[in-house]
Amino acid sequence: MLATASITLPSIHYLAILPVMILVGTSLVLIFLTSLTRNKVSQFVATSITCAASLAVLVVTYFQWRNLDSSGASTTIAHAIVLDGFSVVATATVAISMLMATLVAHDWAIRERVVGAEYQILALAASAGAVLMTQANDLVVVFLGLEILSLGLYVLVAFDRHRANSGEAALKYFLLGGFASAIFIYGAALVYGATGSTNLTTISYFLGSNVLLHPGLLYAGGALLIVGFGFKVAAVPFHLWSPDVYEGAPTPVTGFMASIVKVGAFAAFVRVVISALGTQSETWRPILWVLVVLTAVVGASLGLVQRDAKRILAYSSINHAGFILLGIWAGSVRGVSSTLFYLITYAPTVVATFAIVTLVGGNGDEKHSIDAYRGLARRQPWLGASLAVLLLSQLGAPLTTGFYAKYSVLAAAIDVGGTPIALIALLSAAIAAVFYLRWSTSLYAEDHLDVARVVVPRATGVVIGVGVAMTLLFGIWPGPLATLSQHATLLFNP
Amino acid sequence: MHSSLWLSALLVVPLLGSIVALLARGKTGLSYAVAVVSASIEMALGVVIFFLYNSHVKGAQTFDFATRHVLSAPFGLAYDVALDGISLFMVELTAIVVLLALLGGRDKRREPSFVAWLLILTSLTMGSFVAHDLLEFFVFFELTLVPCYFIITGWGGKEANKAALKFFIYTFSASAFLLIGILYLGFAHQHQVGGSLTFAYGVLASTAMTHATAIWLFTGFAIAFGVKAPIWPLHTWSPLTYAEAPTAGSIELSALLAKLGSYGLLRFAVGLFPLALADVRPVMLTLAVIGILWGSILACTAKDLKRFVAYSSLAQMGFITLGVVSGSKIATVGAVLLMFNHGILTIGFFLIIGFLEQRRASYQIADLQGLQGPAPVLAGVFTIVMLGSIGLPGLSGFVSEYLILIGTFAVHAWWGVVGATGVLAAAVYLLWAYQRVFQGRAVGANATIPDATTKERWVLVPIVVLIVALGVFPRPVLDRISPSVQQLIEHVAPAGLNK
Fold it and tell me: Cα angle vertex A378, ends A377, A380, to 5°?
């Protein structure tokens, strides 16, 4: 009897899960190092190992891409994990953001005297969650990725133990995030009840070949999933946590969070609504329409009254979330590829912006009033000009990646007949332009010339340089990235 | 067909100039010299292109120097330039404006960045005028905002930040309508004929669309260009911005960037949506006429000279709009000529105002009086510019206004009649302003101002020469404009209107 009851293990395509394994593995190695060595693991060693892991993931994505070219998209581990063009490019984006954010955090940790490997351990784990979300082909795996990502971030937000509001922000984030996770998993359960599966491909197949007589369960489940994602990407009206958490979290963590959470959550969002629920698009597209309009307009309008750099960037990121949602709303191949293009270009820009905010924040990470930026470009032309470029990119000025990001999602929306929504979104960008411009103008103010120079450590300087270079280079010549995101979407599974 | 490298050179020379100017910032005055040299090269290129331009290239309508390179197929992004008789004069105007703005509006505060921004702006403006692809045009058009914004905030007056922000937001919001319209048109075309996404001007012109769609698109385009031009009632950003901008900035804005609006209206709104124009023409004509009258009235009430020129520009832009939307070939030729002439006249006004401001540290009309005694040369040049603007026969403004009015009168008589009263009104506000500033008895600081220096005289010479030459002998210009306008109008008004 016993001999026949063997468990069949699903086959595993190791190349597909190698990025997650590298990130989790490195995180574990660092944990062991910290517990086994008598002295604290030096900041330098921890950062180097983390950077090496990010680079390794980048190299792996290259081989994954080669593999895709030869054998096409595939699923593995009982179809729960997918390896397709979309996941590969999104994974690479997470790795690049991770690499840049780690370097910024390194300098920050030394400045704030919170050295140790804990930051890197948590950041690696969170990135593993984000990568898992980009590859998830099953609602349970999406949830798994979401939780790994979020748990790491809850702790990271509280990481600055010298500041009380860091802890406050973490508690807020934890409570609302936990709430959102619960809503998400409840939605997943309802969808399972309606379709008999949590696998995205199976759900899609089931809905394509059956007519639900009582679709209420599916609708409720789908709505809860959208609410769950809405919380994670800070779409209005689920955005209330975001400005407080952005403000309270240590600045490099905010930058890290703003980039990789967006990539992971939006990638999973695309998969769930377009892969699994693609047949139900008449149901969810009107909901997304409202979300896009609210997110874009409210994000831009509330940003107008902020005086704190981090809060401004929080509302700015809400406005951007509106644009990214617009690509998902389009629901077409062009829509998916424009969403991907937006994420690739937005992530490095936002990490570099927060890198500068980290530096200006100074000792104690507290100088975040917009007045701290007055005359920055007069005192330090390169730093000031870099910030101006990054802000103009987020504003959507041509010759920066921000313009083409907006352009691509607008094009996708208009392609499927969404001219009004595209116009509303673009007008919201004009509202948002006010706070970007006010900020960049104050950089060139002629007073406050005697304020002390902002110290620019080498690693952070490199990150800022890379961010600005990518913004300008691909802003002038968006061809390669546009082709990449289009190609990646053509390899989208299914 | 001539090589497109000529046009590419127009874009590259100022860009290189701005980089070199920034690199040369160590030595006082060197970057200014670099800027003047690159603006002179640009001017020389402009002259060469003027004589090379051939309006009869086979199969290219009236376009010359054309080329097209696709930069990104998924985005439909292309580098596509071409020049016809209409854009030719916009290119010439750009080259002249920049050179004179540099020579006459020198600002020694942080000079390297000032001239760098000015040269970048030149390159972008050139790009807008030679762009033969809607998306490419939009990129250049939108990008001109950035240097303008930084020139106004960095070197403007007390309220410069507010003015620049107002200017940016107005234009940025309005161009949202343009971008959405362009995208809509591109996709409508792609859905009709298939193939890859393209925004090439010649290709999109053949897009079939319903009447309602055409009207929506025309309206979107008209809003974007109407803010830039500015056309009443979208002009409310302009007085504050013109007043707060530094002299060179005001010149760029009113002499050059305003023309982006009227040029865009003619080339893209009128050129692409002829059906819609037929329906909305009464509205557009009315707005143009209101602009003429409104601008004239406000110019009478203006308390400072910069606002005065801003309002008189509104009136002049009303004339241009009248010609552009009239659908008459003669009036359209007149409108293109007036774009050029108004540019030249405006440089004249703003240069003289700039010179006065340097001497008296004020451009309030109340502070100035009787200046023709101590400064006869400035007063004389102001008189010529003023008479050119009024439309005195023999000076440049006359030819263009006459063509616009006679052309409009032939097809839409009543608007022509009301518009013609604008010429009278112009005489009123200009002569009155002259009286208040230059006539009467100069007392106090006004009595002792120095007259134009030798250098200032040399800057004013080309303006006077152009005003007189174009008034007496406009033929070389009209010969180049007419075929292109004919081409555009034939498309616009297929039957009976080509008077």
Answer: 60
